[in-house]
Amino acid sequence: MTIPALALNDGRSIPQLGFGVFKVDPAETERIVSEALEAGYRHIDTAAVYRNEEGVGRAIAASGIPRDELFVTTKLWNDRRGAAEARGAMGESLEKLGLSHVDLYLIHWPTPANGSPVETWETLGELRAEGLTTSIGVSNFDERFLPEILETGLVPAVDQIELHPQFQQRAATALAAEHRIAIEAWGPLGQGKVDYSAGAIGEIAERLGVTWAQVVIAWHLAAGRIVFPKSNRRERMEENLAAAAVQLSADDIAAIDALDQGAAGRVSADPAEVS
Ligand code: NAD
């Protein structure tokens, strides 16, 4: 299975389809990530708060896959703000992952209640200059929070936001596009909280002889977004990876685009309320 690579605005490239480990039990992470690597995934998305960076690191070490063939993302948690905290947290993540650098380091949430993210963001720029992370970005910075980051002149390579057919984040994606910031869609399948097997997506899946999840993943890929659906089950890991080969027509894409419900389609937390 060939996974497309996407060019980032900092000259780097990222596998467009990866594997996310939110809610993967730390005790099971090594086994599950090892299976994902065996299935063919080369891009792993974790975070300090998932408490499973050690398992990700062990799976990577055991895989024998050359480091430069892997793309590893982790994220700075909300209680680590300011230069010293961000620097310390990055070191802790690298230690747990057993890596000398990650490929992408993100501020996990904007946390407006904790004050400006600017000092923290500029510290990520320094960490990149020092080679501890190859690219830097933000997560959950929608159109309300991205402008403050952009004012620093340090442009994120990616913005990782909740995005799926009923919540398409049109304002955030339009702002990101102006700055060539790639969108990483988290909860790309709706986190199992939306029945996407019915209606337009189900009809397309049936016609193409693929699954509803493959249709949704193919829709993200066609829009140029990066996705890393999560599954603990080997057959679904393979199913999701195989979505890279699913071709949707312009009409299929338009039918899924039409499912957007705006803010009413959100299934997880509003970044304005996360601290
Ligand atoms: P998701 O949309 O990937 O949904 C995961 C759920 O979908 C699984 O638990 C499983 O029940 C189901 N599923 C997976 N493959 C399926 C298939 N082929 N058929 C049917 N059901 C299937 O949601 P997610 O895990 O929350 O998001 C993906 C990744 O995004 C996470 O693992 C994490 O890496 C990242 N994420 C980031 C943030 C953030 O704040 N930055 C928040 C949530 C998730």
From TrEMBL:
<dbReference type="InterPro" id="IPR020471">
    <property type="entry name" value="AKR"/>
</dbReference>
<dbReference type="Pfam" id="PF00248">
    <property type="entry name" value="Aldo_ket_red"/>
</dbReference>
<feature type="site" description="Lowers pKa of active site Tyr">
    <location>
        <position position="75"/>
    </location>
</feature>
<feature type="domain" description="NADP-dependent oxidoreductase">
    <location>
        <begin position="23"/>
        <end position="260"/>
    </location>
</feature>
<dbReference type="GO" id="GO:0016616">
    <property type="term" value="F:oxidoreductase activity, acting on the CH-OH group of donors, NAD or NADP as acceptor"/>
</dbReference>
<keyword id="KW-0521">NADP</keyword>
<dbReference type="InterPro" id="IPR023210">
    <property type="entry name" value="NADP_OxRdtase_dom"/>
</dbReference>
<dbReference type="InterPro" id="IPR018170">
    <property type="entry name" value="Aldo/ket_reductase_CS"/>
</dbReference>
<dbReference type="InterPro" id="IPR036812">
    <property type="entry name" value="NAD(P)_OxRdtase_dom_sf"/>
</dbReference>
<feature type="binding site">
    <location>
        <position position="108"/>
    </location>
    <ligand>
        <name>substrate</name>
    </ligand>
</feature>
<comment type="similarity">
    <text>Belongs to the aldo/keto reductase family.</text>
</comment>
<feature type="active site" description="Proton donor">
    <location>
        <position position="50"/>
    </location>
</feature>
<keyword id="KW-0560">Oxidoreductase</keyword>
<protein>
    <submittedName>
        <fullName>2,5-diketo-D-gluconate reductase A</fullName>
    </submittedName>
</protein>
